[in-house]
Amino acid sequence: MEERDLKGYWKKNLRYLGILLLVWFTVSYGFGILLAPTLNEIRFSGFKLGFWFAQQGSIYVFVILIFVYVYLMNKLDKEFGVSEEDV
Amino acid sequence: MDVQTWTYILVGITFSIYIGIAIWSRAGTTSEFYVAEGAVNPLTNGMATAADWMSAASFLSMAGLISFMGYDGAVYLMGWTGGYVLLALLLAPYLRKFGKFTVPDFIGDRYYSDIARTVAVICALIVSFTYVAGQMRGVGLVFSKFLEVDIFWGVIIGMAIVFFYAVLGGMKGITYTQVAQYCVLIFAFMVPAFFISLQLTGSPIPQIGFGSTLNDGSGMFLLDKLDALHTELGFAEYTSGTKSMQDVFFITVALMVGTAGLPHVIVRFFTVPKVKDARISVGYALVFIAILYTTAPAIAVFSRTNLIETVSEQPYEQMPTWFNTWEETALLNWVDKNEDGIINYAPGSAIVGAPNISYDGLLDINRGANNQVLLLNEPTANKNELYVDRDIMVLANPEIAGLPNWVAALVAAGGLAAALSTAAGLLLVISTSVSHDLIKKQINPSISDKAELLYARIAAGVAVVVAGYFGINPPGFVAQVVAIAFGLAAASFFPAIILGIFYKKMNREGAVAGMIAGLLFTLAYIIFFKILFPELNSPDNWWFGISPEGIGTLGMIVNLLVSLAIGMIYPEPPEEVQEMVESIRYPK
Question: Other C-beta atoms within 10 Å of B348: how many?
């Protein structure tokens, strides 16, 4: 396997991680904690929005983030020929 | 049938299932014992991870804790789920590619040092033992509350069951038992939640119910009602909380990072066949965990509202029968400070210390003017007359909502499943640390597979007994140990593993110094405030307003800084280690 390919794979992996972790941080620490008092001014059905992100929304987003990551990485593995299925 | 008969039936059935699975899945090799031969289906592993992760604390105590913390309860909800994102993205796939048995294995090989390996073993043992003692205690509590068995015998029965399937089946037995335990615990958690949500809001789905309007025709949102009740009684608004923002922030980070650094969770991702499976398996695990974790805050709101509406400003005489039942177990007590026969509920503790029932002779409880159970405790000076134990919110929920007896029994079986599944996972980490990381890797490398397996079983057996001892005689600070376990995992393992994967040039000197610095810093802070000087444990004395629960975050930063600083002084790691780091970064 060419060295160049693996470097590219790792770089792209790191970019995905950066973006996904940014979302992870924004939703939980941003919406759920730092901005919660502000977001609480907005109502979402019976919930104050900041409270909802802290006790519900962030958890849903965590689940989605992992599945997006799995999808992206499986595609990336194939693209760079490092998938375990190409034996 | 009464609750006790139902409990015997349900606990009997579930325990037989666990034993049956243990016999069916005996382990014959160390690979089977440590990682179930690395042949577990990712969905199965996700479910097992969820049971492994969700302990007696998640099942019995968390919803109750949240109901008293309001918004602040988010530290547990986000803290104990958000770590799985870190696990999936930063740890699980790479550790799976590395492909050994334990976390100390990785630390020892990556940092080419037996000192690093030993430090990791010590961390793993401290974290696992502090955690497992709480589980055995949980088993004992459920037995004593529901089956009127002594805590001592409850713990002994729990020990015998765990001993049987953990020692016999190792990881293989534990994995399949945990799948069964997950099913039991999630069913037991959800059934009362559906019923109560339906009663209170008309919506059977708790996650939607607690944001809906009340079922009483008032058209008022449940959360608005609860906020109003809180304000009326002098509490902070439920949806706002009382902790400072920076403390909430630091505790959440410590719990998230701690979760991602707990050895009994990490090791579960060594059991799947491929890197790809490890990634998706974390996703499945979080789905299974999220079902409980998104329901818990709803239960917290339901039970808080039910409690206040039932007891506050009501005459004691009109209390339903469950009030008296729980009074006798010292989990719910009333001291009539102003002698008006009415229950006044307000902020602050009603009594000094935990309730201590006043007995006349051996068995007769002394009762007051309204026939309430009398306590020996000094009343406090504030207006509050009600003592409520946090655990009661989940335990008494079915009774408070007037649900059938089998639902209450189900909660007992679920609590046992949650405690036993977590205990088993922890015991395995302890036994592997001894037989693999200490005996095989350091003391006697030429040991045969059979002998190593025997040592693993002996170590698991000894660990069960030690855990049982702590369950029966809990150290005084048992309630505080969760903070220790997470803080230590956050301050020791997590940075060492992350640097090991993402920073190729990190050398052993840096990693060892970082782990030791992070560990000592965190331990010192927690011991200072929790054990040596509990009277100083208040925001005025904390560094940067960070409570001992959140100090692991600072410990992690200390670890990172020390690692990087010391790492710069010493030479780069050997070529073959750097190649190993390269190789774990891609699946094939």
Answer: 11
